[in-house]
Amino acid sequence: MIAGQEPTSALLAEIASTGTDPHRGGYSRHLFTDAELSLREWFAEAAARRGLTVEVDGNTNLWAWWGEPGASAVITGSHLDSVPGGGAFDGPLGVASALAAVDLLRADNFQPGKPFALAVFAEEEGGRFGRACLGSALTAGAVDPADALRRTDPDGVSVADAARRAGFDPAAFGPDPDRVARIGQFVELHVEQGRGLADLDTPVAVASSILAHGRWRFRFTGQGNHAGTTRLEDRRDPMLPAAATVLAARRTAAKHQARATVGRLQPVPGGTNVIASTVDMWLDARDDRETVVMNVVDDITAAAEAACREEGCQVVVTKESFLAEVAFDAALRDRLLETLDGAPVLPTGAGHDAGVLASSVPTAMVFVRNPTGISHAPEEHAETADIEAGSRALAAVLRELAR
Ligand code: GLV
Ligand code: MN
Ligand code: MN
Ligand code: MN
């Protein structure tokens, strides 16, 4: 092994104990928490060890340049944050592979002929503040910085306050067209989040597209009251229409052959012996057809309203984010396929920073087999041999693009 050269699995081992969540299992690595800040430091140190120049952009994304920053840059990377109780690979695999790819290219005496950088995007999962791909969407101008800064975490801490406490300047948040204009191509390596590669018995794939997807908040209101003294006929319990809406989401998704998930429900005040006054419920809906996603949300909204009428409650639905279907750049995908001869092409239902950037710059993704087919859960996995195959594939692709 040459100096600074570490296989991707060794890099992942360095952060294996950062941000573990003993309560949920897996990892909770949320924006501007101690765990996430320490992962940023880890990346900056690993990049510096490789002689890369690290900068933090106004939206707190990290960039590590191999040589001088410049136009038509080849960029690779992913994210280091996680969902609550997530796996070890969603995000960090792409970052560790990017670092390892630099080592592999150097070991091969490769010098990029173009500006070349690794990127780590902030709050990809929206795990703390609810807006997926926050860092890349801010940079691309796809989200209003004032709205973003006002978003709060479950404890009521705003993005602005959390950023300030972590030493970042909230006033710097916002579109960064010059930075985006410098990107020639962006390639993100990611653990596959479904069973596609496991079923094909193949270690590496190239992505074709991402489903249209979005998040909606359903706020049910009723009357908070005592669990023991309030007769059933006197109740206005918002948990009932919320429960009916969870079931409607499943039914509606099945009817439209789409995907709809309620993964988060927050009763207020949240006491066992208290009828809730409010229940916030978040719906995640996805399909390859945008119109189907909208129909699914409309049908679920109608079911929520009907259930509220029955229970004397109200519901207000707020769209929190939406990204139309992404078809990755066909020419770039074909270049990847030429390099990764025989790699299958797979669509995905998962969102990525590469999907957000796809509307501004040519982007592509490389997937690495996940034998469990499980993701956003501690059981997400990638075998060491596949991890290293993925990193070699990424290095080969970058060599071709950055010649
Ligand atoms: C992110 O991984 C998402 O698909 O929500
Ligand atoms: Mn994810
Ligand atoms: Mn991810
Ligand atoms: Mn009492």
Task: Describe the fold and architecture.
By secondary structure, the chain is of the alpha/beta class. It is 36% helix and 23% strand. Strands 1, 2, 3, 4, 5, 6, 13, 14 and 15 form a nine-stranded mixed sheet that branches. A four-stranded antiparallel sheet has the order 9-11-7-12, covered by helices on one side. It has a two-stranded antiparallel ribbon with strand order 8-10. The longest helix has 22 residues, at 290-311. Residues 83, 90, 125, 350, 376 line the site of one manganese (II) ion.
Topology:
Elements: H1 8-14, H2 34-49, E1 53-56, E2 62-66, E3 73-79, H3 92-107, E4 116-121, H4 134-140, H5 145-150, H6 159-165, H7 177-182, E5 183-191, H8 196-200, E6 204-210, E7 212-221, E8 225-226, H9 239-256, E9 259-268, E10 274-275, E11 278-287, H10 290-311, E12 314-323, E13 326-327, H11 330-339, E14 345-348, H12 353-357, E15 363-368, H13 384-402
Parallel strand pairs: 3-4, 3-5, 5-15, 6-14
Antiparallel strand pairs: 1-2, 2-4, 6-13, 6-15, 7-11, 7-12, 8-10, 9-11
The structure holds glyoxylic acid and manganese (II) ion (3 copies).
One manganese (II) ion binds at residues 79, 90-91, 124, 190, 352.
Pfam families: Peptidase_M20
Family: Belongs to the peptidase M20 family.
Protein name: Allantoate amidohydrolase
